Each structure stands twice: as structure tokens, then as C-alpha cells.
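Chapter summary example: a protein plus 1,3-dihydroxyacetonephosphate.
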Amino acid sequence: MRRKLVAGNWKMHGSLVTNKQLLDDVIKGLNGVRDGDFAVCVPYPYLSSVKNLLQNTNIALGAQNVSQYEKGAYTGEISASMLNDFECRYVIVGHSERRALFGETSHIVAEKYVTVQKAGLIPILCVGETLEQREAGVTERIIEEQLTAVIDSAGIESLCKAVIAYEPVWAIGTGRTAEPEQAQDVHMFIRSFISRQNSNTAKELIVLYGGSVKANNAAQLFAMPDIDGGLIGGASLIASDFVAICQAVGN
Ligand code: 13P
């Protein structure tokens, strides 16, 4: 049985003071909740303080990005082994904001994925199409290309130690969520694409949905057979919303 996962992606938000307020409430809200795994992916400077706040809770720590290089003269970059020092469990790779705004190609994303796994961490690999691509009818081709880059570098079985997040770019931060059936169609496509290469991997693979998941639509999305939880942006910054979304995986 695949376990459901809800991960918050704080993006470039937060401060020492507001992080503590947010997490105090989230930790309280999720105390004793056993259905599902939970995580928050926080900006680098807060890894240390958030790690301390999450001690002895059921919430894991994650980062939002990583260098594709292991070490060296790469000013401003952060390596996977550094993230390991802070007991990160997850690292988001290939978020559409990084692909679109910071020039990350599928090749670079694949390198990051490999580096993260090598360090013993779990990559949350984001894939998804733009509105233009959806309207042109090439959603599946785009996702296939994004997945293939990783599979070619790391092998199909590596996906058992990874999480995929399907995040349609047109649904991110727009308030325009994919309809549950619409998201399910793509999740099913992802699982069957993987299944053609390795059916066991496909069965074990955790595929999250991301893009304007809110407290009032999470349960319908998570009820879909191939949706194993969510990657949550804006709503992960509001404690009561994030807690409600996390609780929705148990429904
Ligand atoms: P929103 O939930 O704000 O749409 O963001 C989704 C996202 O990009 C998570 O990685």
C-alpha cells in the first residue's frame, strides 16, 4: 500500500518569527494524526531552526532545491550532503518555477535528482505542462520527456525512492485547480507510463498533485485512485488550511 504524503512548499516566504508561529500551530494540529506522511520544504536559511522545531513531531523536513554538483567552487550553491547535515528527508527538484525562471533544463533536473538520491535523500520530482502546452494537446508528451530525462540518468527503479509531483503550471498560484478527474487522468498516465517499464515500481510510486490545493478541494483530489497526496504552496503558509489539507489524506 502506498502511503499518502502532504508536503508544504513554502517557496520564498517566512521569517524566524512567523515560521515558529506557523509551525507551532501545524504541529499541534497534526499531533497524533497517523494517516499519512507530512513534510515542510523550507528556505535554506531556516533549515536549522525548523529542524529543531520539528524534533519529535510527525512532520519531516525538506528543501526546495539543491545543486547538481557534490562540492566545489560553485558560489552560492548548496549541496545534497549539506542538506543531509540538517536531517532533510525530501528535496524538491525541477519545480516549474526553477525550470521557467532559473533555466533548469530536464537534464539539470535529472542531475539534481541523482545527486539527491546519492546523498540518501528523497527527491520530489516536479513535472507538469504549461497552459499553452495543454491547449496544444501535448501534456503527455511533455511529462514523458520530463520523466524520461530522469529515468535515463537514474534508472526506472530509482523512482521507488522518489516522489513525483504533478503540478500543471497553469494551476500553480492561480487559484485554478485541476478538476479531480482532470488531475487523475494525468496521474494515471504517469503511472501507466512507468508501468510499461516496470510494473512494481509503478505500483509503489507516490504521485502527488500540486497546484492551488486548498482546504476545500483537497479531499476530492486525494480521493482519486492515482493521487497519493499533495504538494502545497500558498495554503501551506496558513496553519489551519495546511492542517486541514493534511487531514484530508486520511478521509
Ligand atoms: P500553490 O499551492 O500556491 O498553487 O503552489 C503549488 C506549488 O507550486 C507547490 O510546489
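Key point: The longest helix spans residues 139-154.
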